[in-house]
Amino acid sequence: MSRFGKLAAILWLATLGFAGDQSWEDWVRMAYESWTAGDRANALELWERAYHDPENANHPETMATVEFNRATALLWFGRIGEAEAGFLRALTRQESLYGQSSPGVASTLHCLALLCVRAGRPQEAKSWSKRALEIQKALYGAQHPSVASTLNILAEVLMTEGRQREAVSAQQEAITICERTACSDWLMGVMLGNLGRMLGASDATRGQAEEFCLRGRLILEKTLGARHPYVALAFTNVAELDRRNGKYGEAEAMLRNALDIQREVWPPTHPDTAKTLFDLAWVMAEQRRFSEAASFFEQAAVMREALFGPDSLYMAETLGAYAAVLRKTGHRKQAAAYSSRAQAIAERDPAFRRRIYSVDVRSWERKQSK
C-alpha cells in the first residue's frame, strides 16, 4: 500500500436483480459477472452505464449497491477522488435505507478507511476503520473475516503513527482470525506480507519478517498468478526488507519486478505504482546513484500530485526526498524550492513532521553527506 497498496478490501458485491428497464438490469448483471471473473475494466464500464442511466432513480436499493460497486472499481484503478465521492454517496444512501449499522454501511466504512490509507490520510482512516470494526463485531462477532480485514487496515494506521508493537499485535490478531475462519487465501497472503513488513522495521524481528513475507508471496502467486498486482506488492515488501539489510541490488530487482507488473495491470497513474517509484528512487539514492534517484523521485512526485493534489502528506514525503538528491547533483535552487514546499506541507501536521519528514528525509540526507 503507505504502504499505501499493500492493503486488501473485502468487496461487498450483493446479488443483483430487479424489475424494470431490461438494459439497465443487464448492465448491472454483466458488471457483477465481469468483476467476479477478474475483468475489472469491463465491470467498471458497465457500472458506469448503470449509474448514469436515469432509470436508476426507480431502484434506490439496487442503486446503493451500484454506487458502492462502482466506487470499489474506481478505487481499484486508483481514481481516488472519484472513488471517495462514490463511497460517500453510497454511505448516505445505505444509512437512509438501512440505518447506521447495516452490513452495507460497514463495508462502505471499511472501503473509506482503505482509501484514506492509500491516500496518506491516516487519521481519517482510523476514524472510518473504528466505525466499521464496531459494526462488524456487532453484526458478525469478533471472529469474522470482515473483522480481520478491517484490523489489517487499522494495523497500517498504527504503523504510520509509529506504534509498531500495537500494529504488529493488530495484524497478528487479524491473521489468527483468518486461520480460524474461511478467509480468502489472497487475504491471508496480503496480511502475512504486511506482518512481515511491520516486523522488518525492527532489527530484532527481521528474521521472522523474511519468513512471513515469503509465505505471503507464495500464497499470492499460487492463488492469483504471478502477474497480479497483489504479487507486485509482495515484491515491495521483500524489497523493503532487503533495503533495511543493505541488500540494495536485491531490493532494486524486486522493485523493478513490481514496477513491471504494476505498469502492465494498472492505468498510467496509480497509488501503488507511485509508491514503487518512490521506493526505487530511495534504493538508488542509498547507493549514491543520485541522478537516477532524482529521475524516479520526479516521476513519483508527478504521479502523486495528480492522484492526491499538491498539498498531500505524500507530496511532502516525495518532495523532501527529491530535494535531498537534487542537492547532491548540484541543483541547489530547485532543491531549495522543493524543500520549502515539503516543509510547508509538513508544518500542517506536526505528527507527520516528527515521525516521517524530519526522521526519514533529514536523517537520510545527513547520512548521505558523510
What structural class do you assign from the helix and strand content?
mainly alpha
Gap from first CA to last CA: 32 Å
Q: Low-confidence runs (pLDDT<50, min 5 residues)?
A: 1-22, 356-360
What is the level-2 CATH architecture name of the domain at 1-152? Alpha Horseshoe
CATH fold node name of the domain at 1-152: Serine Threonine Protein Phosphatase 5, Tetratricopeptide repeat
Largest sheet: none
Question: What is the number of helical segments per DSSP (H or I, 4+ residues)?
Answer: 17
CATH class of the domain at 1-152: Mainly Alpha
Q: What fraction strand?
A: under 5%
CA-based gyration radius: 21 Å
Number of strands: 0
What coarse outline follows from CA principal-axis ratios?
globular
CATH superfamily of the domain at 1-152: Tetratricopeptide repeat domain
Task: Describe the structure in your own words.
- With 370 residues, the chain is mostly helical.
- The chain has a domain at 1-152: Serine Threonine Protein Phosphatase 5, Tetratricopeptide repeat.
- Helix content is 77%, strand content 0%.
- The chain is built from 17 helices and no strands.
- The protein has helices at 22-36, 40-52, 60-76, 80-98, 103-118, 122-140, 145-160, 164-180, 185-199, 206-224, 229-244, 248-265, 271-286, 290-308, 313-328, 332-346, 350-369.
- Helix 3 runs parallel beside helix 5 (103-118), helix 5 (103-118) packs parallel to helix 7 (145-160) and helix 14 (290-308) runs antiparallel to helix 15 (313-328).
- The radius of gyration is 21 Å and the shape is globular.
- Mean pLDDT is 88; it is low at 1-22 and 356-360.
